[in-house]
Write a structure and sequence with these properties.
With 164 residues, the chain is an alpha+beta fold. The chain has a 6-stranded antiparallel beta sheet, covered by helices on one side. Strands 5-4-7 form a 3-stranded antiparallel beta sheet, with no helix packed on it. It is globular and about 55 Å long. The termini are far apart.
Length: 164
């Protein structure tokens, strides 16, 4: 009977570089896009100095692009909202960076505090609103990059997001 374990026979697999998968330069899965959003959220120096607040319209800034995706930074003063919309053929990840936002769908509403994430597929209709008394900032990752944002009436909202 041989008592050698696989690890004793093969050694430390992490010490064998040719057996490791190379790190991807850009995200390719939903989990990786959500991870990208979390890493940007954690690095306030990357986005905080760019934020502006506009009382007349929502402010937005394209923060980053990659092959087939883009990352947007948005600010929301109290009372500002997106209107009920979807993102055409794009999937996305919404991450609240500071403040609080409310997401409304036909199934109800959800309060989103800093660090909250929502992942959505193409055609997912929602409205995002700053119902609080303080400004808010959010990060949005779209894949493929956002090319349209069709507006909806309340009766046309029919899907539910998947929380991350």
């Amino acid at each position: 009977m041989n008592s050698d374990s696989d690890l004793q026979i093969a050694g430390d697999i992490l010490a064998v570089p040719h057996l490791l998968q190379p790190a991807r330069e850009h995200p390719a899965t939903v989990a990786e896009f959500a991870g990208l959003a979390r890493s940007i959220a954690a690095d306030r120096a990357q986005w905080e100095h760019l934020v502006e607040y506009d009382a007349t319209s929502r402010w937005y800034h394209r923060l980053h692009t990659g092959p087939g995706y883009e990352v947007w930074l948005l600010s929301w003063v109290p009372g500002q909202g997106s209107g009920l919309h979807d993102h055409g053929p794009s999937s996305g990840v919404l991450t609240v960076l500071q403040g609080e936002l409310t997401e409304r769908t036909e199934r109800g509403e959800r309060s989103l505090a800093p660090g909250s994430q929502r992942v959505f597929a193409p055609g997912y209709a929602h409205e995002v609103v700053n119902d609080s008394l303080e400004p808010a900032v959010s990060l949005h990752v779209y894949y493929p990059g956002l090319t349209e944002m069709p507006m909806h009436t309340a009766a046309s909202c029919t899907t539910e997001a998947v929380p991350v």
